Amino acid sequence: DWTPASFIESTVAELKEQLGNDKVILALSGGVDSSVTAVLLNKAIGKNLTCIFVDHGLLRKNEFENVMKDYEHLGLNVIGVNAKDKFYKALAGVTEPEQKRKIIGKGFIDVFDEEAHKLKDIKWLGQGTIYPDVIESLSITGTVIKSHHNVGGLPDTMKLKLVEPLRLLFKDEVRRVGIELGMQPHLIKRHPFPGPGLGIRILGDITPEKVRILQDADDIYMSLMREWGLYDKIWQAGVILLPIQSVGVMGDERTYENTVALRAVTSTDAMTADWAQLPYEFLAKVSNEIINKVKGVNRVVYDISSKPPATIEWE
Ligand code: XMP
């Protein structure tokens, strides 16, 4: 019978056997899959694993710093790279969603490659690919690096073999493995988050100021969701910054500011999703807090579309 404990035992033994004294590099995203992969590899080969965590400037508020602390707490050998400016520069003026994805994906590979080249004798590329990714690839770490690898994009000196210890698991199994490994629940229960991050939740072009507005609004939404005990009941939630200004009044003054949309869905696999029936009192609180505290937002709307025909993200 499959149990998290038996999976860990046999996988760690296999990894030791397969990897011997070889060195492995792995890109961490802050998400559940890459984190559990890292902890498994760390258990098997320890310091022969080097992890790279790239800040593309499109993460949630304080996410990079918080997640770096979590990784260090887990004893992982992790290199954090601040590449915000590089990404903001490459994205300036770009509005088309797929083009944004390409730029972010390529930027990510470039930074990863650059870091990888500073290391010596790497033989393997670890990836947090899980079974649904094998069927329908979605994540940056699951797709771009893999195709990059497969098309031979990595330089000759770095012909890396792939090691994907979670490739036969579903998400709920990955979470159970993470808990069994003693990882903190807040890491394990984390909602899915797209590789391009807030870059595809800012409709239209991306600027550091828009990122600031979205991070602040999103932080209020997520914090209240946790406070109200709603976070674990939701598959995924986030705020979308719309390219729409509208008129409002603040005190005695007329405002002409941005609109944000709140999104929250229930799902089991992201292939289909229902909009979450969040309590009105909660929505009222979130709306008030965002409008009162986030400079640049004067209107909040709630997305009541399910997938299909809508998608979870807006881009
Ligand atoms: P959609 O919007 O297609 O999203 O209903 C389904 C799931 O995939 C995530 N998503 C992405 N993840 N890179 C990713 O790593 C992407 O470009 C991307 N686009 C969507 C989305 O957040 C949801 O969990």
UniProtKB/TrEMBL annotation:
Record: residues binding ATP: 29-35
Keyword flag Nucleotide-binding: yes
Catalytically driven reaction(s): XMP + L-glutamine + ATP + H2O = GMP + L-glutamate + AMP + diphosphate + 2 H(+)
Top EC class of this enzyme: ligase
One GO MF term: GMP synthase (glutamine-hydrolyzing) activity
Pathway: Purine metabolism; GMP biosynthesis; GMP from XMP (L-Gln route): step 1/1
EC number assigned by the record: 6.3.5.2
Keywords of the record: ATP-binding, Glutamine amidotransferase, GMP biosynthesis, Ligase, Nucleotide-binding, Purine biosynthesis
Statement: the UniProt record of this protein carries the keyword Methyltransferase: no
Domain GMPS ATP-PPase: 2-190
Physiological role: Catalyzes the synthesis of GMP from XMP.
Complex formation: Homodimer.
Designated name of the protein: GMP synthase [glutamine-hydrolyzing]
